[in-house]
Amino acid sequence: MGGATVTAVAVSYAPDSGPPIAPALERLEQLVGESLAVAGGRFVLGDAARPVVVFEDPAEAVAATRHFRDAAAGLPAGQLVRIAVSTGITERHVVRHAQRLNEIANPGQLLLSALTAEIAPATAGTADAGSVGGLFVDLGLHRLRDLGAAERVFAVQGQAAEALRSLDGVPNNLPVMFTSFVGRHAELGALRAQVMGNRLVTLTGPGGSGKTRLAAQTAAELADRWPDGVWWIDLAPVTDGGQVPEVVASAVGVLAESSGRSGPLIASQLSNRKALLCFDNCEHLLDSVAEFVVTVQVACPEITVLTTSREPLDVAGEVVWRVPSLSASEAVSLFVERAGPGFIPDEEAEQAIRTICARLDGIPLALELATAWLRTLTPQQIEAGLDDRFGLLVRSTRGAAVRQQTLASSIDWSYDLLDSDEREVFRRLAVFAGGFTLDAASAVCGLPGVREVIGRLVDKSLVVAADARYRLLETIREYAATRLADELDGLRDRHLDYFLHVAEEATPELDKNRDAWRAVIEPERENFRAALDHGRSGLETDKGRRLAAALPWLWNLQGTGQEGIRYLRRAIESSPDDRSLLQARLLYGYATVADTAAPFGYDAAQRGLELTTELGDDSLRARCLAMVAVRNYYLDFQAAWDRCEEGRALAESIGDEVARDANLGVECLLLVLWDRHDAARPLLETVSEGLIARGERGIATAMVTLLSDSLASTGELPLAVETARKALAIAEPLGDLHRVGMARGQVAQLLGRSGELDAALELMHPFLRLIENAGTWVPSLGKVMGDLYRWNGEYEKAIDWLRRDVPTEGPIADTYIPAVTLPALGTALRQAGRLDEAAEALDRAVVLARRYKLPRILADALEQQGYLVLDEDPDKAADRLHESLTLRVDHGLRLYWQDSLDALALLAEQTNRPKDAERIAQLDLDEAVAYARRTRGARGRPSTGWASLTPTERDVVAAAVEGLNNPEIGARLFMSRGTVKTHLAHIYTKLGVANRTELAALAAKRT
User: Fold this and answer.
1) d(C-alpha 312, C-alpha 286), whole Å
2) Of 45, 36, 37, which is closest to residue 64 (Cα–Cα)?
3) Is residue 949 classed as helix, strand or coil in its secondary structure?
4) Residue 54 and residue 5: Cα distance in Å, rounded?
5) Would you list the DSSP string of 92-149?
6) 446: left (phi > 0), else alpha (psi -120 to 50), else beta?
7) Mean pLDDT of the chain
8) Mean pLDDT lowest for which of 559-563, 621-625, 672-676, 726-730?
9) Per mean pLDDT, which of 21-25, 367-371, 388-392, 441-445 is the most reliable?
């Protein structure tokens, strides 16, 4: 039998002499390790003050425990050490039972559960092993403080016969609980403090929230404080308030009068007692209970009263303690616990359980009713069944109160106690989703005195109040909705009217103070969703369409872009022939949300531009031009630039700074991608200042992050890190993973580039766990993590991350987006020894970088191509590496100059030019770059003729032959006019021509 069980040994110091000192705890922990863990035990709780060790074999556990007890006698305060051993089937239950058994032990005592005493050998290895009589003493039946039924407890022979510290040591009638107490550790500690410090404490909360269980557990754990008893008075079956004193007298065992006026008599009998009276379920007898409690408190100075009620007693000195829902982790633990010891959920079931717990608001009764269905349904099926939660959550457990046999009947109990005006307001509050303000409730409910009624509903635990907002728990809200009948359509109309007013009143703040706008709009996100879904005709009405047009910037945050696109698309298509300003606003709104959610497909931006042009609304037209540019820049940078120039000019002509900054922002993005940092820098600073001043944190985050990237590229790394941290500080108040992730990733990448890899990874890992749970896409996250792991030498992990940002199919695959990450992917593949894959990735990077004119990306790819052919074709490697260096120098990409120098130094070593390598290493950065550009070394090509031209020089020739002038060549090839002039001089010398005319003629002959 031992092989099928697990045995736990719980150790602690008895609290008789206060908390043990640190040396005693250290020695206890050491001795537990020496005597128990070494003897085959396994630590499951490493708390030095209360260690628990688990054994597979109860015989080993008992033998090791006896040895430990003998050794403990030599510990500091060793006489206070107490030990308990429990055996069972499931580890979590056995550990908990051993801890509870340990609580009732006396100092120096070793206790065993009945099963341990039955199956453990009397002395390990002897013939009479297993004989209980020779080694163990039966101490009789005792109730532990978990409120379970009395159980038989054993002790080891030879111990002092001292009464155990069980519940039986204090007079009480505490109810027997047939299930374990799960979670609530913080609440239990807080409530114990309240009960010890106050004479009247009332636990309030909605039906099924766990008030009774928490009150009973608190009373059990504090029972020793009241030598004259802990008395439980269940008022649920009492219907006449006049019977309250008699019920108390019966529970406590004192005399009562038959006249029904026994309060003073009972109080007189309790006047010299120190006891705890626990009144359970007071809500339907509030006046009678309050009267009795006041009488007792006046006459009985050492009587403490603990009550549970859905509404406070409202008497002087009462401490009201609202019982919260279970936390997410506690709710899951309760579900799994109630499912039984054989229930082991897989990953899919665990996700379903988390969803069940969230949808049931962490209400213990609802969760216990849900787990009852595990006999016939899977967690996934239970989750699906919650659409009819009041039909699903029923049970027929014998002994359960009628009001606790279904979720609906539990709430019925509270509803039936309401006055008529309270019922009416309660029902109408069901129309709100996610909470409401008092102003909203007054406007939508359309009844007099709503504010006062809501106050009473808060007292009755049907409405939750927090931070000037109110809400119904979702389970309560669904119940209230079932009570609505003919009122529903009118309520939904008023709800839509109210929240349309809220949204449109706040709209001017969008251009003045976006933070203020969010403070008004964000808390009502769920109400806006409900209004759009449940207005009488929803998005097919003018009001619904107006509401959708007012909310695009709400959907631009919190990863709700797809939701916004659905609403806006429905609103647009409900009136496809509409040529009004409202339709134009909807089209612009769609484009705004699609920017980060779905940039391809439905071309709302162009349609909005055409309509605003037709309507003559220049402000909205300038903004639509910016959104058309956003769409264009994925595939055609020049077209995007042209639209921005047009939009910027229009916005400036009408004095619209918001529209101007929208267009400038896209221009800044293009300039940084083109590595025109001198032009981008002042514009980025201008745009960022305006956005920050207006509280537009989302776009400001992008612009300040872009500024950080520009500063880093030009070698100003410390300032770039500081700027990236500023972007993160701007983003964090949004709570938007997209923007926060963008800024956090920039900080991490720059820290990694600075050599602070540990700090960078530490910054990202908590965020990775967060987005994994949220399922949110964050731009460039693959590139960030890929670079960090690559710099850390974890190449395969880097490759996995980098591939996430390199789509190979779909509309994004041929945009500039994959080009940004492809050089890093090629680098990681090369470093991992996957050379063919690296070559393929780098070839694709070069093609895309040349197509979109991305100098930094092209330079990175060329450098890696040079590394790939360094051994087999040094000349080709030299071409690639020098072209990369030239791009970096011509565009001021100072951050990457050292990368080029390292590559060229390695090339010099490979081609037997150690002095060049040594010289590059010795010179400062600028001198080393100049030296490397002067000293190309042996290239394996002639010094004159077409074959002597470098790839860059060939590109200059092609542009010159087309007829481009020097500035135009520079713009095409991302180099300064002076650099173009220098290249042409080299070309003329190598080809033996004097001017462009001769060059064109020579090129024509070659063709």
Assistant:
1) 8
2) 36
3) coil
4) 11
5) HHHHHHHHHHHHTPPTT-EEEEHHHHHHS-SSTTSTTTT-HHHHEEEEEEE--TT---
6) left
7) 85
8) 559-563
9) 441-445
